[in-house]
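Fold it.
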Amino acid sequence: MTGQERANSVSYRWVLPVLAAVAFIAPAQARAAIVGDTAVPYSATRIVTVDGKEYRGKVFAVPGKQRHDVDINGLALSLVLDIAGGAGVVAVPALHSYVDFPLPPLLAELDRRRLEGHAAGEERIAGLPAVKYRIEYTASDGSRGIGFIWLTRDNILLRIDGRIERPGHRPMTVTMRLDDLRLGPQDDELFDITNGLKELPYQALEMLLNLRLKAHRH
């Protein structure tokens, strides 16, 4: 396994409650942006379920960037996605540290034009009208996203219901929904989460999260 492949694999495990629920995404037609790269700023509560385990947190979004705050195995994390740059950063306040990671291919390859002809109706989600789309896409690393997504005309990703398949791993069932969604400007400082923190190797964070997971199982 190459360093890039290992980093991609690790990033799935670190921030699964975040990445799993934005894994059915696509560059928009009008500009180089993924589905879920909102055209309007907002904040919301975000509820993600991965294989039956629920993770509840906050999301703050502006065009080009997203911040997700979530607790994973008892460890509070803040994660910022630099959508245009194809990368992300996880801040671990308890350790005064942060980790950079690449977005996995499933998060970066599906062109939104592929959604044309796959609309499965319209619904109202979190108080906003949305189009439901069927997704079935295999990325260059063999990972595959299958299911449905609900999008507003401003590319707000309101809901996901599907699964993620990766070679050598069992499929993951994933759902996501936004609640208490509020449109409006977001403070720029929300997306600067590394100030005053030290960079941590991704192997160290992987080890810490694995230890937390074992502790929670006992």
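The chain is about 15% helix and 45% strand.
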